Amino acid sequence: MRRALISVSDKTGVVDFANALVERGVEILSTGGTARLLSESELPVVEVSAYTGFPEIMDGRVKTLHPKVHAALLRRPGVDDALMEAHEIRPIDLLVVNLYPFEAVVAQTDCSMEEALANIDIGGVAMLRAAAKNYAAVAAVTAAADYPQVLKELDEQGGLTQVTRRRLAASAFAQTAHYDTAIAQYFMARIADDGSDELPQTLSLQLNRTHTLRYGENPHQRAAFFQSPGVRERSVASAAQLQGKRLSFNNIVDTDTALTCAREFEQPACVIVKHANPCGVAVAGSLLEAYGQAYQTDPTSAFGGIIAVNRPLDAATAAAIVGCQFVEVIIAPSVLDEALVHTAVRKNIRVLAYGPWNDESELGYDFKRVRGGFLVQECDSVLLPPGDGLRPVGRRHPSTSELEDLLFAWKVAKFVKSNAIVYARDGRTLGIGAGQMSRIDSARIGARKAADVGLGLAGSVLASDAFFPFRDAVDHAATAGVKAIIQPGGSVRDEEVIAAADEHGMAMVFAGMRHFRH
Ligand SMILES: NC(=O)c1ncn([C@@H]2O[C@H](COP(=O)(O)O)[C@@H](O)[C@H]2O)c1NC=O
Known about the structure:
- The chain is α/β, with parallel strands linked by helices.
- The chain folds into three domains: 3-193, 3-Layer(aba) Sandwich (Rossmann fold), CATH 3.40.50.1380; 238-353, AICAR transformylase, duplication domain (Cytidine Deaminase, domain 2); 391-510, Cytidine Deaminase, domain 2.
- The chain is 38% helix and 19% strand.
- It has 19 helices and 21 strands.
- The protein has helices at 14-23, 32-40, 48-52, 67-74, 81-86, 102-107, 113-118, 123-133, 147-157, 162-193, 249-262, 287-297, 299-302, 315-324, 337-343, 400-413, 439-452, 472-480, 494-503, and strands at 3-8, 27-30, 46-47, 94-98, 139-141, 208-213, 223-227, 240-243, 269-274, 277-283, 305-309, 327-332, 350-353, 365-370, 373-378, 391-392, 421-425, 428-433, 461-464, 484-487, 507-510.
- Strands 8-13-12-11-9-10 form a six-stranded mixed sheet, with helices on both faces.
- Helix 14 links the parallel strand 11 (305-309) and strand 12.
- Helix 8 (123-133) packs antiparallel against helix 10 (162-193) and helix 12 packs parallel to helix 14 (315-324).
- The two termini are 60 Å apart.
- The ligand NC(=O)c1ncn([C@@H]2O[C@H](COP(=O)(O)O)[C@@H](O)[C@H]2O)c1NC=O binds next to strand 1, helix 2, strand 4 and helix 8.
- This is Bifunctional purine biosynthesis protein PurH.
- Belongs to the PurH family.
């Protein structure tokens, strides 16, 4: 091994490694910052610009992008020797590169597009690809963890084995692929934000396995949590776990639903989720009150549930939760120390703090796997169509308090699996019918659940995630005491359905959009 080109952004361990190479008679070529560091450590270094005869320009945008570098990496021994000689190209046998930290930079909340662009490495990626393509002649090292192995093989065999070179090449290509995918994903998220009409022609997803889970939905399914790098949005993935067992697959799914639903409300809110459906939701003057009312909707289902709140978890609320029910997860923007005293009594409860909310959104797509591919859609991130708001369609218009309850119920219905029917009054759910194959069944189940816990439906409102195909659910709701209904509208039987509401003296509003959740 005669010559190494070292150009690293993360300079951990590079001085010792370069020193060891020099001791073994290797000449070092290096770029600006790396060369400076090595020189300061009194190592002999040839600056790449001295070798190419071309200065580093444009604040480092162009430093190694030169034929004398790339030909040195791409040379074919025995084929290009004369040409190398003619152009004074000196062979490079070892390339040591790690790239500008694009992912870490864009993960910062205040990262501008300008900063993101400045951190897209071009020269390093080009060199890695060249060296990895020419792995038989050039070893491409991208990780400090590989430095010892390189030195060991140099000592024991005078060079790197083909097996090691191939492994290093595979790793270099994996890194450049990962790097470019992260960049593509960053741009894709911005295209989605720009409201482009079409989804992209290709979608490259870069996901990193961050947690191996004990199992998936069931114990016989292996599973892991793969997270999108560089994501700034607050989520169960970014939340800090303050106590309790590790989150399970189902915990993560349910916590995501609970947290996203809780974030819909301005007032202090509590959402209890069980098996992917809210089973109790309330807003109130305090979290304690909101929790109490959410819990009362369906104490049976709340057992073993996931609780999300949108205010710092205080001691009184924590004590109430721990005293009332078995809970798997509690997630809050933050958790007061006094609250942790109460949750600590049940060591297994997973307590998470998601931090100050931000409106950053990840790649705004939702994925569902089917055999043969993925269905991709935009996330259902709106509540009502822009502008036109709720449209009263019956003879009676809702009162102000009914309107408030209708909006509350509508927000909840968005998170209930279809067919979703939500009964609510005074900022709290009274009964929720979820996931039935017919809307009337969901309406019956929601009403029955309210009755089971003694919550009367007189004067309540009802939200339906999609239109009523028949008037039956409206008739059923009227019998139960419902006074106002919110639904998207759009059924061929809308007239019949509106007439039913009018007959019962109910107010009915059309939301103008539906919120199926499958
Ligand atoms: N522009 C170039 O020609 C170029 N060549 C190498 N780099 C990168 O520059 C970094 C090292 O820079 P320095 O040695 O100046 O600290 C490495 O991450 C390397 O991948 C470049 N920077 C960006 O593309």
